[in-house]
Amino acid sequence: MRLKLVIGIFDLLARLPLRTLHFLGAVLGWLMFNFSASYANRLRENIHNAFPDLSEAEFQQLLSANIKEAGKSVTELPWVWRRSISDVLKVVREIHGWEQLEIASAKGKGVIILLPHLGCFEVVGTLLSSRKVTTCLYRVPKLAWLDSVMRAGRDRGLMKSAKADVSGVRILFKGLKKGQLNGILPDQVPSNGEGEWATFFGRPAYTMTLAPRLIEASGAAVFMCYAERLPVGAGYNIYFSELAIPNYTDLTQKINHALEDIIHRCPTQYLWSYNRYKTPSGATPYQAQKEVA
Q1: pTM for this structure?
Q2: Would you call 149 helix, strand, or coil by DSSP?
Q3: Which residues are paired to 222 by β-bridges?
Q4: 288: pLDDT confidence band, cut at 50, 70 and 90?
Q5: What residue segments make up the domains of the chain, in order of their start?
Q6: Taking a C-beta distance cutoff of 8 angstroms, is the pair 225, 114 a contact?
Q7: What is the distance between the terminal CA atoms of the chain, rounded to a whole angstrom?
Protein backbone atom coordinates (compact mmCIF):
# COMPACT_ATOMS: atom_id res chain seq x y z
CA MET A 1 0.00 0.00 0.00
CA ARG A 2 2.79 2.43 0.93
CA LEU A 3 4.65 1.69 -2.31
CA LYS A 4 1.53 2.40 -4.41
CA LEU A 5 0.97 5.65 -2.53
CA VAL A 6 4.55 6.82 -3.05
CA ILE A 7 4.50 5.91 -6.74
CA GLY A 8 1.19 7.76 -7.09
CA ILE A 9 2.68 10.88 -5.49
CA PHE A 10 5.79 10.62 -7.66
CA ASP A 11 3.64 10.30 -10.78
CA LEU A 12 1.68 13.42 -9.83
CA LEU A 13 4.86 15.40 -9.17
CA ALA A 14 6.35 14.18 -12.45
CA ARG A 15 3.53 15.94 -14.30
CA LEU A 16 4.78 19.30 -13.04
CA PRO A 17 7.22 21.27 -15.18
CA LEU A 18 10.86 20.81 -14.19
CA ARG A 19 11.02 24.55 -13.55
CA THR A 20 8.28 24.26 -10.92
CA LEU A 21 9.96 21.29 -9.23
CA HIS A 22 13.24 23.17 -9.04
CA PHE A 23 11.47 26.16 -7.49
CA LEU A 24 9.92 23.86 -4.89
CA GLY A 25 13.32 22.28 -4.39
CA ALA A 26 14.90 25.61 -3.54
CA VAL A 27 12.24 26.11 -0.87
CA LEU A 28 12.81 22.58 0.44
CA GLY A 29 16.54 23.24 0.61
CA TRP A 30 16.03 26.20 2.92
CA LEU A 31 13.59 24.23 5.06
CA MET A 32 16.13 21.42 5.52
CA PHE A 33 18.83 23.94 6.37
CA ASN A 34 16.73 25.87 8.91
CA PHE A 35 15.13 22.89 10.64
CA SER A 36 18.19 20.64 11.04
CA ALA A 37 21.10 22.08 12.99
CA SER A 38 23.31 19.06 12.30
CA TYR A 39 22.62 19.34 8.56
CA ALA A 40 23.36 23.07 8.54
CA ASN A 41 26.54 22.71 10.60
CA ARG A 42 27.94 19.93 8.42
CA LEU A 43 27.13 21.91 5.28
CA ARG A 44 28.94 25.00 6.59
CA GLU A 45 31.88 22.98 7.87
CA ASN A 46 32.45 21.07 4.63
CA ILE A 47 32.30 24.21 2.47
CA HIS A 48 34.65 26.07 4.84
CA ASN A 49 37.05 23.15 4.72
CA ALA A 50 37.05 22.92 0.91
CA PHE A 51 37.32 26.68 0.33
CA PRO A 52 39.16 28.18 3.31
CA ASP A 53 40.27 31.27 1.38
CA LEU A 54 36.79 32.54 0.51
CA SER A 55 35.78 35.91 1.87
CA GLU A 56 32.70 35.96 4.10
CA ALA A 57 30.60 37.35 1.24
CA GLU A 58 31.86 34.66 -1.16
CA PHE A 59 31.22 31.96 1.41
CA GLN A 60 27.65 33.12 2.02
CA GLN A 61 27.01 33.25 -1.73
CA LEU A 62 28.24 29.67 -2.21
CA LEU A 63 26.35 28.47 0.87
CA SER A 64 23.07 30.05 -0.26
CA ALA A 65 23.36 28.62 -3.77
CA ASN A 66 24.21 25.16 -2.45
CA ILE A 67 21.26 25.12 -0.04
CA LYS A 68 18.90 25.62 -2.98
CA GLU A 69 20.66 23.13 -5.24
CA ALA A 70 20.52 20.44 -2.56
CA GLY A 71 16.75 20.83 -2.40
CA LYS A 72 16.44 20.65 -6.18
CA SER A 73 18.33 17.34 -6.16
CA VAL A 74 15.42 15.89 -4.19
CA THR A 75 12.41 17.39 -5.97
CA GLU A 76 13.71 16.59 -9.47
CA LEU A 77 13.81 12.84 -8.74
CA PRO A 78 10.12 12.16 -9.57
CA TRP A 79 10.56 13.99 -12.89
CA VAL A 80 13.67 12.00 -13.85
CA TRP A 81 12.48 8.62 -12.56
CA ARG A 82 8.82 8.69 -13.66
CA ARG A 83 9.00 10.54 -16.95
CA SER A 84 9.83 8.57 -20.11
CA ILE A 85 13.45 8.31 -21.19
CA SER A 86 12.66 10.42 -24.26
CA ASP A 87 11.11 13.15 -22.11
CA VAL A 88 14.16 13.31 -19.87
CA LEU A 89 16.60 13.39 -22.79
CA LYS A 90 14.74 16.37 -24.26
CA VAL A 91 16.06 18.53 -21.41
CA VAL A 92 19.68 17.42 -21.87
CA ARG A 93 20.96 20.52 -23.65
CA GLU A 94 24.63 19.71 -24.19
CA ILE A 95 26.79 16.58 -23.91
CA HIS A 96 30.53 17.13 -23.72
CA GLY A 97 33.15 14.38 -24.14
CA TRP A 98 30.88 11.63 -25.50
CA GLU A 99 33.07 11.16 -28.57
CA GLN A 100 36.06 10.36 -26.33
CA LEU A 101 33.97 7.86 -24.39
CA GLU A 102 32.96 6.14 -27.62
CA ILE A 103 36.61 5.85 -28.66
CA ALA A 104 37.55 4.34 -25.30
CA SER A 105 34.58 1.98 -25.38
CA ALA A 106 35.60 0.69 -28.83
CA LYS A 107 38.80 -0.74 -27.34
CA GLY A 108 36.69 -3.49 -25.75
CA LYS A 109 37.97 -3.35 -22.18
CA GLY A 110 34.93 -1.57 -20.84
CA VAL A 111 34.57 1.89 -19.34
CA ILE A 112 34.24 2.84 -15.68
CA ILE A 113 32.26 6.05 -15.16
CA LEU A 114 32.80 7.76 -11.82
CA LEU A 115 29.74 9.81 -10.87
CA PRO A 116 30.22 11.90 -7.72
CA HIS A 117 27.36 13.52 -5.80
CA LEU A 118 27.52 16.49 -8.16
CA GLY A 119 24.58 17.96 -10.04
CA CYS A 120 21.94 15.47 -11.19
CA PHE A 121 23.72 12.15 -11.63
CA GLU A 122 20.35 10.46 -12.20
CA VAL A 123 20.12 12.24 -15.56
CA VAL A 124 23.46 10.74 -16.53
CA GLY A 125 22.01 7.31 -15.85
CA THR A 126 19.05 8.07 -18.11
CA LEU A 127 21.37 9.14 -20.91
CA LEU A 128 23.49 6.00 -20.57
CA SER A 129 20.37 3.82 -20.50
CA SER A 130 19.53 5.06 -23.98
CA ARG A 131 22.98 4.49 -25.50
CA LYS A 132 25.13 1.81 -23.82
CA VAL A 133 24.67 -1.34 -21.74
CA THR A 134 25.56 -0.05 -18.28
CA THR A 135 25.60 -1.48 -14.76
CA CYS A 136 25.48 0.98 -11.87
CA LEU A 137 26.48 -0.03 -8.37
CA TYR A 138 24.18 1.22 -5.63
CA ARG A 139 23.69 0.83 -1.90
CA VAL A 140 20.30 -0.61 -0.96
CA PRO A 141 18.35 1.93 1.14
CA LYS A 142 16.91 0.86 4.47
CA LEU A 143 13.37 1.60 3.32
CA ALA A 144 12.07 -1.18 1.06
CA TRP A 145 9.59 1.08 -0.74
CA LEU A 146 12.35 3.56 -1.61
CA ASP A 147 14.43 0.74 -3.09
CA SER A 148 11.51 -0.30 -5.30
CA VAL A 149 10.85 3.25 -6.52
CA MET A 150 14.53 3.89 -7.13
CA ARG A 151 15.06 0.66 -9.07
CA ALA A 152 11.96 1.30 -11.18
CA GLY A 153 13.30 4.74 -12.08
CA ARG A 154 16.84 3.60 -12.84
CA ASP A 155 16.53 0.13 -14.41
CA ARG A 156 15.21 1.20 -17.78
CA GLY A 157 16.49 0.82 -21.30
CA LEU A 158 20.06 -0.53 -21.27
CA MET A 159 20.62 0.30 -17.59
CA LYS A 160 20.61 -2.15 -14.70
CA SER A 161 21.50 -1.77 -11.03
CA ALA A 162 23.78 -4.00 -8.97
CA LYS A 163 23.79 -4.10 -5.19
CA ALA A 164 26.94 -2.98 -3.42
CA ASP A 165 27.89 -6.47 -2.25
CA VAL A 166 29.95 -9.41 -3.52
CA SER A 167 27.33 -10.41 -6.09
CA GLY A 168 27.14 -6.85 -7.39
CA VAL A 169 30.92 -6.62 -7.76
CA ARG A 170 30.90 -9.84 -9.78
CA ILE A 171 28.30 -8.33 -12.10
CA LEU A 172 30.53 -5.27 -12.59
CA PHE A 173 33.53 -7.42 -13.50
CA LYS A 174 31.50 -9.49 -15.95
CA GLY A 175 30.19 -6.34 -17.61
CA LEU A 176 33.70 -4.94 -18.10
CA LYS A 177 34.88 -8.21 -19.61
CA LYS A 178 32.11 -7.82 -22.20
CA GLY A 179 33.24 -4.26 -22.95
CA GLN A 180 30.26 -2.69 -21.18
CA LEU A 181 30.04 0.36 -18.92
CA ASN A 182 30.12 0.53 -15.12
CA GLY A 183 28.76 3.44 -13.10
CA ILE A 184 30.09 4.06 -9.57
CA LEU A 185 29.59 6.79 -6.97
CA PRO A 186 33.24 7.18 -5.89
CA ASP A 187 32.64 9.61 -3.02
CA GLN A 188 30.19 7.39 -1.17
CA VAL A 189 31.57 6.28 2.20
CA PRO A 190 32.13 2.49 2.00
CA SER A 191 31.58 -0.04 4.74
CA ASN A 192 34.40 -1.21 6.96
CA GLY A 193 36.94 -3.25 5.03
CA GLU A 194 35.90 -1.80 1.68
CA GLY A 195 37.97 1.36 1.80
CA GLU A 196 41.11 3.11 2.93
CA TRP A 197 41.95 6.56 4.23
CA ALA A 198 42.83 9.14 1.57
CA THR A 199 42.68 12.92 1.64
CA PHE A 200 39.68 14.70 0.17
CA PHE A 201 39.90 18.48 0.17
CA GLY A 202 42.74 18.21 2.65
CA ARG A 203 41.00 16.00 5.20
CA PRO A 204 41.25 12.21 5.65
CA ALA A 205 38.19 10.52 4.19
CA TYR A 206 37.47 6.80 4.22
CA THR A 207 37.43 6.14 0.48
CA MET A 208 36.24 3.12 -1.49
CA THR A 209 38.88 0.83 -2.98
CA LEU A 210 36.46 -0.92 -5.33
CA ALA A 211 36.96 1.49 -8.22
CA PRO A 212 40.78 1.23 -8.09
CA ARG A 213 40.55 -2.57 -7.94
CA LEU A 214 38.21 -2.68 -10.94
CA ILE A 215 40.44 -0.33 -12.90
CA GLU A 216 43.61 -2.30 -12.22
CA ALA A 217 42.04 -5.72 -12.81
CA SER A 218 40.26 -4.82 -16.05
CA GLY A 219 42.42 -2.17 -17.68
CA ALA A 220 39.19 -0.31 -18.41
CA ALA A 221 39.18 3.35 -19.34
CA VAL A 222 37.99 5.71 -16.61
CA PHE A 223 35.79 8.76 -17.08
CA MET A 224 34.65 11.35 -14.59
CA CYS A 225 31.13 12.59 -15.24
CA TYR A 226 28.52 14.98 -13.90
CA ALA A 227 25.32 16.66 -15.06
CA GLU A 228 25.16 20.37 -14.38
CA ARG A 229 21.72 21.62 -13.42
CA LEU A 230 20.86 24.71 -15.49
CA PRO A 231 19.06 27.76 -14.03
CA VAL A 232 15.27 28.12 -13.94
CA GLY A 233 14.58 24.47 -14.81
CA ALA A 234 16.16 24.86 -18.26
CA GLY A 235 17.61 21.34 -18.17
CA TYR A 236 21.09 19.87 -17.87
CA ASN A 237 24.52 19.88 -19.47
CA ILE A 238 26.44 16.61 -19.15
CA TYR A 239 30.23 16.43 -19.05
CA PHE A 240 32.46 13.38 -19.58
CA SER A 241 36.23 13.66 -19.14
CA GLU A 242 38.72 10.82 -19.31
CA LEU A 243 40.96 10.31 -16.30
CA ALA A 244 44.57 9.71 -17.34
CA ILE A 245 46.09 6.86 -15.31
CA PRO A 246 49.83 6.50 -16.07
CA ASN A 247 50.18 3.88 -13.32
CA TYR A 248 48.14 2.27 -10.56
CA THR A 249 50.19 3.59 -7.65
CA ASP A 250 48.11 5.34 -4.98
CA LEU A 251 45.07 5.16 -7.26
CA THR A 252 42.55 5.83 -4.49
CA GLN A 253 44.21 9.18 -3.80
CA LYS A 254 44.43 10.00 -7.50
CA ILE A 255 40.69 9.49 -7.86
CA ASN A 256 40.00 11.79 -4.91
CA HIS A 257 42.14 14.50 -6.49
CA ALA A 258 40.27 14.06 -9.78
CA LEU A 259 36.98 14.43 -7.89
CA GLU A 260 38.21 17.66 -6.34
CA ASP A 261 39.04 18.99 -9.80
CA ILE A 262 35.57 18.48 -11.26
CA ILE A 263 33.84 19.67 -8.08
CA HIS A 264 35.78 22.93 -8.45
CA ARG A 265 34.08 23.34 -11.84
CA CYS A 266 30.61 23.36 -10.28
CA PRO A 267 30.96 23.81 -6.49
CA THR A 268 27.43 25.09 -5.92
CA GLN A 269 25.97 21.72 -6.97
CA TYR A 270 28.09 19.34 -4.90
CA LEU A 271 26.34 17.60 -2.02
CA TRP A 272 28.36 19.29 0.72
CA SER A 273 25.82 18.18 3.32
CA TYR A 274 26.88 14.54 2.83
CA ASN A 275 28.78 13.16 5.83
CA ARG A 276 31.87 12.40 3.76
CA TYR A 277 34.33 12.35 6.66
CA LYS A 278 32.62 9.88 8.97
CA THR A 279 34.31 6.72 10.23
CA PRO A 280 32.25 3.66 9.22
CA SER A 281 31.14 1.30 11.96
CA GLY A 282 34.01 -1.05 12.83
CA ALA A 283 36.65 0.83 10.86
CA THR A 284 39.82 2.02 12.56
CA PRO A 285 39.67 5.82 12.87
CA TYR A 286 42.28 7.63 10.81
CA GLN A 287 44.19 9.04 13.80
CA ALA A 288 44.40 5.65 15.54
CA GLN A 289 45.58 3.99 12.31
CA LYS A 290 48.18 6.71 11.84
CA GLU A 291 49.53 6.22 15.37
CA VAL A 292 49.87 2.46 14.85
CA ALA A 293 51.70 3.01 11.58
Answers
A1: 0.94
A2: helix
A3: 112
A4: low
A5: 2-292
A6: yes
A7: 53
